Automatic annotation (TrEMBL), chain A:
<comment type="similarity">
    <text>Belongs to the GcvH family.</text>
</comment>
<dbReference type="Pfam" id="PF01597">
    <property type="entry name" value="GCV_H"/>
</dbReference>
<dbReference type="InterPro" id="IPR017453">
    <property type="entry name" value="GCV_H_sub"/>
</dbReference>
<dbReference type="GO" id="GO:0009249">
    <property type="term" value="P:protein lipoylation"/>
</dbReference>
<dbReference type="InterPro" id="IPR033753">
    <property type="entry name" value="GCV_H/Fam206"/>
</dbReference>
<dbReference type="InterPro" id="IPR000089">
    <property type="entry name" value="Biotin_lipoyl"/>
</dbReference>
<protein>
    <recommendedName>
        <fullName>Glycine cleavage system H protein</fullName>
    </recommendedName>
</protein>
<dbReference type="GO" id="GO:0005829">
    <property type="term" value="C:cytosol"/>
</dbReference>
<dbReference type="InterPro" id="IPR011053">
    <property type="entry name" value="Single_hybrid_motif"/>
</dbReference>
<comment type="subunit">
    <text>The glycine cleavage system is composed of four proteins: P, T, L and H.</text>
</comment>
<dbReference type="GO" id="GO:0019464">
    <property type="term" value="P:glycine decarboxylation via glycine cleavage system"/>
</dbReference>
<dbReference type="GO" id="GO:0005960">
    <property type="term" value="C:glycine cleavage complex"/>
</dbReference>
<keyword id="KW-0450">Lipoyl</keyword>
<comment type="function">
    <text>The glycine cleavage system catalyzes the degradation of glycine. The H protein shuttles the methylamine group of glycine from the P protein to the T protein.</text>
</comment>
<feature type="modified residue" description="N6-lipoyllysine">
    <location>
        <position position="60"/>
    </location>
</feature>
<dbReference type="InterPro" id="IPR002930">
    <property type="entry name" value="GCV_H"/>
</dbReference>
<feature type="domain" description="Lipoyl-binding">
    <location>
        <begin position="19"/>
        <end position="101"/>
    </location>
</feature>
């Protein structure tokens, strides 16, 4: 059973057990425009909630992607190095950024469900 | 660009409604509400301009007529030579030349285009500098010239390999013009000023049109399926690939034309040993740079990796140690090269193409090489 939650900074988290797969939302990729480079965190890095974890660069500008929860980086998406434009074509699917082992499930409390996120971006 | 006053209401060009109707994403730029991109996006707009033709609204730029009180255009040219290091007298009627207003230190107040329209000079200056430029012209040239701000005109750039065929349908004179030809021509029956020039490295035209007719002309050009509207985002990536300077970033009041690698734009007649050496603001500093060399130089930079290196990144000679040796002044992703491109200032001793440098990006030093500019070969019709 997967639960998907959203941050006000336009990251999504698909949560299975104590692992969250993290990416940026379709709304975010539309705002960024054509993505040309993604910098991902190192494997094993222990992130603190709200810390800059990744960078996504469009032709126009660089934007930080923040860790939506604290925890250790378990896996990063190797497809993004070869094809950053995946972020534009499949932001909430194939273009996931990293997987993180959730250190403290209580941190999920402040995140939005899909309906709340839709209202947030409306 | 100089930072515009954040509190002043944004100005609109005569094409504002058209931008909005085309889905343009409007952003503040130099005090104007301008389209940074349309729904196609920066990447597609950039590539379309290089493959076909792009239409740009550059009406925010300043258009100024310099009319000689004597009626002789050479008197306006001689007067303007007091403010720029270029040979203005040598601009033939119907021709245009790139120039810079310099200050007493040899720095650059603005860069501009100067055209000879036979009985007067026509200037195009940067949006953020236009009020200061006009004041500068009035302060120094009012004895010889009437300085006529052409605020009632819009400016449309049409750039790319299909620009000529697109404009030829509306302007019979267009195909016979060559790079830097400029003059009054009818376009779609409207009294326009047309130059064969631009800011993309591509062949193309800039068309000055009465403000009230601008939307009709833009719409007529956009009816051609080869022509796509292009926003400021792609304008920036196109000019960066072409190695062209952006005022306020790559050149400013602290950079001389020699440091900025713009020696080609200062004709021999205005240099030491020329027919009319000096006689422009900052001549001592600028001619000293010509005669003895400058300590630093604007260069092109290519990254070895994929991460864009952007404006403000510090440059180092070494992967780990040392003080910064320079700074990136423009940088981003070059869609036509499918790679990062940048320009910046480095010590002249480290300015040769092939020199290896490092740029600090998010705490890491990324390897770069000094590279010849333009990064993308220009296609001007000579």
């Amino acid at each position: 059973m997967t639960t998907t939650l959203y941050t006000s900074d336009h990251e999504w988290l698909a949560i299975e057990g104590d692992v969250a797969t993290v990416g940026i939302t379709d709304y975010a990729q539309q705002q960024l425009g054509d993505v040309v480079f993604v910098e991902l965190p190192k494997l094993g890095r222990v992130l603190k909630k709200a810390e800059a974890a990744a960078v996504v660069e469009s032709v126009k500008a660089a934007s930080d992607v923040y860790a939506p929860v604290s925890g250790e980086v378990l896996e990063i998406n190797p497809a993004l190095a070869a094809e950053p434009a995946l972020v534009n074509s499949d932001a909430q699917g194939a273009a996931w950024f990293f997987k993180i082992k959730i250190a403290d499930k209580s941190e999920l409390g402040g995140l939005m469900d899909e309906a709340a996120y839709k209202a947030h971006t409306a | 660009m100089l930072p515009p006053d954040d509190h002043a209401p944004l100005r609109r060009t005569p094409l504002y409604d058209l931008h909005v109707s085309l889905g343009g994403k409007m952003v503040p730029f130099a005090g104007y509400d301008m389209p940074v991109q349309y729904p196609a996006g920066v990447l597609k707009e950039h590539l379309h301009t290089r493959a076909s033709a792009g239409l740009f609204d550059v009406s925010h730029m300043g258009q100024i007529a310099l009319r000689p009180k004597s009626g002789r255009v050479e008197d306006a040219a001689r007067a303007l030579e007091r403010l720029v290091p270029q040979d203005i007298l040598a601009i033939a009627p119907g021709r245009q030349r790139y120039a810079q207003f310099t200050n007493a230190d040899g720095g650059i107040l603005d860069d501009l285009m100067v055209a000879n329209f036979g009985d007067h000079l026509f200037l195009v200056v940067n949006a953020a500098c236009k009020d200061a430029d006009e004041a500068h012209l009035r302060a120094h040239l009012s004895g010889d010239c009437v300085i006529d701000s052409l605020a009632d005109r819009a400016l449309i750039a049409l750039q790319g390999p299909k620009a000529e065929s697109a404009l030829a349908k509306l302007c019979a004179a267009a195909p016979s013009m060559t790079f830097m030809d400029a003059g009054p021509h009818e376009v779609a029956g409207l009294p326009c000023f047309v130059s064969r020039s631009g800011y993309t490295g591509e062949d193309g035209f800039e068309i000055s049109v009465p403000a009230g007719d601008a939307e009709r002309l833009a719409k007529t050009l956009l009816e051609n399926p080869d022509v796509m509207p292009i926003g400021l985002g792609a304008r920036d990536s196109l000019r960066l690939e072409a190695g062209l300077c952006l005022y306020g970033h790559d050149i400013d009041t602290t950079t001389t034309p020699v440091e900025a690698a713009l020696e080609w734009s200062v004709q021999k007649s205005r240099r030491t040993g020329g027919m009319r050496p000096g006689g422009f603001p900052g001549a001592d500093a600028i001619l000293a740079h010509f005669d003895k060399g400058a300590n630093r130089r604007r260069v092109g930079l290519r990254a070895e990796g994929r991460a864009p290196v952007r404006e403000g990144a510090l440059l180092f000679a070494d992967a780990t140690a040392g003080e910064p040796i320079g700074k990136v002044t423009s940088g981003g992703f070059g869609p036509s090269l499918n790679a990062p491109v940048a320009m910046g200032y480095v010590p002249t001793s480290q300015s040769a193409p092939g020199t290896k440098l490092f740029a600090e990006v998010r705490g890491q030093r990324l390897p770069l090489q000094v590279a010849a500019m333009p990064f993308v070969k220009n296609t001007y019709k000579r």
